[in-house]
Amino acid sequence: MKLLSGKTALVAGASTGIGRATAKLFASQGANVVVVARREPELLSLVDEITALGGRAGVYVGDVVEENAAREMVEYAVSSFGGLNVAVNNAGMLGSSLPAEEVSLNEWLQVLNTNLTSAFLGAKYQVPAMRKSGGGSIVNVSSFVGYTVALPGMSAYSASKAGMVGLSKALAVECAADGIRVNALLPGGTDTPMGREASSTPEAIEFTKSIHAMKRLAQPEEVANSALYLASELSSFSTGTALLVEGGVSISKT
Ligand SMILES: NC(=O)c1ccc[n+]([C@@H]2O[C@H](COP(=O)([O-])OP(=O)(O)OC[C@H]3O[C@@H](n4cnc5c(N)ncnc54)[C@H](OP(=O)(O)O)[C@@H]3O)[C@@H](O)[C@H]2O)c1
């Protein structure tokens, strides 16, 4: 039995990395998947990969900071597949690695809008659609940064990712009675384009590995497995949680 048979899932930030791996996994578990990002060619190649494996997917090209896009991607899911059951709000950006005193207000707002406000806008339209579909699961992708650890040069990113945990808890209490669960997923260092941007030298990669108890980075597919857990009925009694998938950063002092 596939874990997402007959479900429709929206994955924002699906063109690369964790979102792309999540979309492929969800499709392989029977979901109709709507993949969202700004880069159309990457999304179209993802749909080709999903279709070749016998899955069903549709593309919405847009910017998650736009409220119209948040509304339209849900409308697209409902009109294409008849409802919405799962949403993974995963789009994100790092921002510069400047100390807070040198970060411009524009950059601060761009990072907060991309990483946090996008999930708020997403929920505004995902929740009513899920209510109509009889319930659902929202997975908000946060990070070990801003929760397990703080790292210099990441003030806006950390604030946005800590905010994802608070937003998820608030939505969880608002939506529980409607059968909608909302959880935050907190990956550790993961081998993706963003992970490679954050750790761009061999020394930086070694440092990032070293702060994980497991002394390695995650593959995006490992994080996707945890997104599947939160999205599916496997986590049917979990809401408002912050699920660490961070290779033991929080318990490591070596
Ligand atoms: N890699 C790590 O070590 C790590 C660790 C903890 C948490 N995370 C979080 O995991 C999530 C996925 O990151 P990743 O590592 O997989 O990085 P990634 O490969 O760079 O993916 C980021 C995704 O977000 C999309 N995106 C960014 N801004 C967007 C916007 N304004 N509108 C629509 N889509 C947008 C990108 O697509 P387009 O550019 O095509 O729009 C891309 O699909 C992020 O929220 C990140 O903060 C990553």
TrEMBL record:
Pfam families: adh_short_C2 (PF13561)
Highest taxon above the source species: Bacteria
Keyword Acyltransferase tagged: no
Domain Ketoreductase: 7-183
Keywords: Oxidoreductase
Oxidoreductase as UniProt keyword: yes
Annotated InterPro entries: KR_dom, NAD(P)-bd_dom_sf, SDR_fam
Single Gene Ontology MF annotation: oxidoreductase activity
Family: Belongs to the short-chain dehydrogenases/reductases (SDR) family.
PANTHER family from the UniProt entry: DEHYDROGENASES, SHORT CHAIN, OXIDOREDUCTASE UCPA
Designated name of the protein: SDR family oxidoreductase
Source organism (scientific name): Spongiibacter nanhainus
